[in-house]
Design brief:
Blueprint (H helix, E strand, L loop, with lengths): L1 E6 L7 H17 L4 E3 L17 H15 L6 E14 L5 E11 L2 E2 L10 E2 L18 H7 L11 E5 L2 E9 L12 H8 L4 E6 L7 H16 L3 E5 L1 E5 L3 E6 L3 E3 L5 E3 L7 E8 L4 E3 L13 H20 L4 E4 L4 H14 L4 E5 L7 H14 L3 E3 L3 H12 L14 H24 L2 E2 L5 H6 L20 H16 L6 H5 L22 H12 L7 H9 L3 H5 L3 H7 L3 H16 L1 H7 L4 E2 L21 H12 L1
Parallel strand pairs: 1-2, 2-3, 8-9, 9-10, 12-21, 17-18, 17-20, 18-19
Antiparallel strand pairs: 1-15, 3-4, 4-5, 4-6, 7-8, 10-13, 11-12, 13-14, 15-16
């Protein structure tokens, strides 16, 4: 049996474009005499499309293209993911009943699941954690079975196809149906007990995060071995967003043998159409082109590079953005942003602007110019001393009527004036004049505790590195120099200078004065609050400190903690300072931040849902704090 796997770029809420991509691959599959072509979950409508699911006209459009796919199935069977609609019934929100479904078009008709009577197979498990909110829009097989006082296996049967005079039984599952460890229902294992299958399918729209590919492979190897049945995992590529958070889909479609062996059938972050002969007797792939070989683990820096460049490129293409403007400070964050966009857009479309004040050193100004020369990007200096001093003088003359109050422009306010002058005035105006957009260079460490200025350096159309901790920014910068460019494109000065906003004499880099954060420690502390599956709190950190295992608890070096905090008072002051900012003012800033490119186990935005409230410390924290101070 010749099978084609269509790992394609899926555009959110763009049925027409997705259909034409599918059509192109179907035609090629027919030309290559494939008998079956398989596409990913929600290949037609897209996956992250928000409340577009509430538009009846969009649902009708999906059905229109379902019929067009039927017309392509005379010479090949087509399995694809889309929305299943039952116009007679309602979801729990009172809207029309919708299912995340798999269709099979064969000889001009859709195959019918005789158990549900629907012309599609229904997703059993709907994820409702992290970025997922599937039950907001869809009904699942569990609910349908419950309505009928049945078990999910009572509404399931294999998809039966006739090939070469033989009936082939295909096991059907959709993405989360495989990620069932924390569910009472285990769909694939349950279906496998009741029926024999020639192979299983898992059609997915699985967003990328660091190291997820390895976790996914372990999971599906275990399933294939447990069922003693081969499994095709078919994932999409491209980028889709939930407004505040942008996700890449890495493809990495894979065939898992019944022994749990792995054969890659789709590239990492690349569209592809692959063909195989599947031996129904031996239940193996027969292909000279695809051999099982020792898999080389991709390094973290390379994984970050590939995913970031791919996601940014897809976003810019989707949003029709041709030019970007970047405030280039001479520091590491803006340098990495400049490299990323130059790689994606080409150097002639990336405009770099250094906006010095009297607080900026010649070292960082020269480093900015050197990077622009190395990248061969358009570059300019736009000094801000005159404008910020004018603003300071203007505010100093203000007197409010009624109260008679005046404005005191202290050092902190003056720092904010500088940041906003650069972002809200200069970069915004330059971008508008060039017909482009400007970039937010904030990293995840800064976003966590609000170490950035609202409407200033936290402004922009996109925050491409806002899911990278500061240490990862350095890791990726070194990777570009050493592995990609193989020369010193990001200047040594930028890599070695102390990280600093350079907004006052207190941040004089020539005197080694910089940010108030020790990134090799604080990155780990903040990650425990944000990224850990069971997110940590100050009382958790205090308890670990009390047990003298804080370094192990966070994953940082113990000697670093001993150096930073010679006594407990300093540790507690630091802990309370950053927690108060994380839960307080930084939350206000994050709500108004640009969209973030998601890369880690938990990105800000839809993946990190938070409420804005007055910051307090729990009774448990105060109790633990007293105990620590006594000891």
């Amino acid at each position: 049996m010749k099978i084609a796997i269509g790992q394609l770029i899926v555009k959110a809420a763009n049925c027409a474009e997705n259909f034409h991509k599918m059509q192109d691959q179907i035609i090629k599959a027919v030309e290559n005499q494939a008998q079956l072509i398989i596409f990913p979950e929600m290949a037609l409508p897209g996956y992250f499309i928000g409340d577009t699911w509430e538009q009846l006209s969009f649902l009708h459009e999906c059905e229109f293209y379902h019929k067009k796919i039927l017309n392509l199935s005379k010479d090949i069977d087509i399995i694809f993911g889309s929305v299943g609609i039952d116009w007679r019934k309602k979801n729990e929100d009172g809207r029309v009943r919708k299912y995340n479904s798999i269709y099979c078009a064969s000889n001009g008709k859709f195959k019918i699941n005789s158990k549900t009577k629907y012309p599609f197979w229904i997703k059993s498990l709907l994820p409702n954690y992290r970025e997922f909110d599937d039950s907001r829009y869809f009904y699942d097989l569990r609910k349908l079975a419950n309505d009928k006082n049945l078990l999910i296996q009572d509404l399931y049967e294999p998809l039966k196809l006739k090939q070469n005079g033989k009936i082939i039984n295909i096991g059907i599952s959709i993405c989360e149906d495989a990620w069932s460890d924390d569910y009472h229902n285990k769909p694939i294992l349950t279906f496998n007990k009741k029926y024999k299958h020639d192979f299983f399918l898992n059609l997915s729209a699985s967003p990328f995060t660091l190291a997820k590919k390895e976790k996914r492979e372990k999971l599906f190897c275990k399933i294939a071995k447990s069922c003693s049945t081969p499994l095709f995992y078919v994932n999409c590529v491209g980028a889709q967003n939930l407004g505040k958070t942008i996700y890449g889909f890495d493809g990495s479609s894979t065939f898992y043998s019944k022994k749990g062996e792995i054969i890659e059938i789709g590239n990492f972050f690349a569209e592809s159409l692959r063909f195989f002969q599947y031996d129904l007797k031996k239940k193996i792939i027969e292909s000279k082109k695809i051999n099982q070989k020792e898999k080389l683990k991709i390094e973290k820096a390379e994984e970050l590079q590939i995913s970031l460049e791919y996601i940014i490129k897809n976003c810019l293409n989707e949003w029709n953005i041709k030019k970007v403007v970047i405030g280039l400070s001479g520091g590491i964050d803006s340098a990495l942003s400049a490299v990323l966009f130059t790689r994606v857009l080409g150097n002639e479309n990336v405009y770099l602007v250094n906006m010095p004040s009297k607080f900026n050193s010649n070292l960082t100004k020269n480093a900015a110019k050197k990077l622009a020369d190395n990248l061969q990007c358009p570059f300019t200096f736009i000094p801000i001393d005159e404008s910020i001093n004018y603003t300071k003088e203007q505010l100093s003359k203000v007197v409010f009527s009624q109260s008679g109050e005046t404005i005191i422009v202290n050092s902190f306010v003056f720092e904010n004036i500088q940041a906003r002058d650069r972002g809200g005035r200069i970069l915004a105006a330059v971008a508008a004049a060039l017909g482009g957009v400007f970039v937010c260079n904030a990293n995840k460490s800064e976003m966590t505790v609000g170490y950035s200025t609202l409407y200033g350096d936290q402004a922009g159309f996109l925050a491409p590195i806002a899911d990278l901790w500061k240490q990862d920014v350095y890791l990726l910068a070194h990777h570009y120099n050493n592995q990609v460019f193989k020369k010193q494109v990001i200047p040594l000065e930028t890599l070695q200078v102390v990280p600093s906003a350079e907004l006052s004499e207190k941040q004089n880099v020539m005197e080694n004065k910089g940010d108030p954060l020790c990134y090799p420690y604080h990155d780990f502390l903040f990650a425990s609050w944000v990224e850990h599956w069971n997110r940590k709190t100050p009382e958790d950190c205090l308890k670990a400190y009390l047990k003298n295992n804080l370094a192990q608890f966070l994953g940082c070096e113990k000697k670093l903690i001993d150096t930073l905090f010679p006594d407990v008072q300093i540790f507690i002051k630091d802990l309370e300072r950053w927690w108060s900012l994380y839960r307080g003012m930084a939350a206000f800033k994050r709500v108004q931040a640009p969209p973030v490119v998601a890369l880690t186990r938990r990105a800000f935005g839809n993946d990190h849902r938070e409420h804005i409230s007055r910051v307090t410390f729990s009774a448990e924290y105060e109790k633990t704090k007293s105990k620590v101070l006594k000891n």
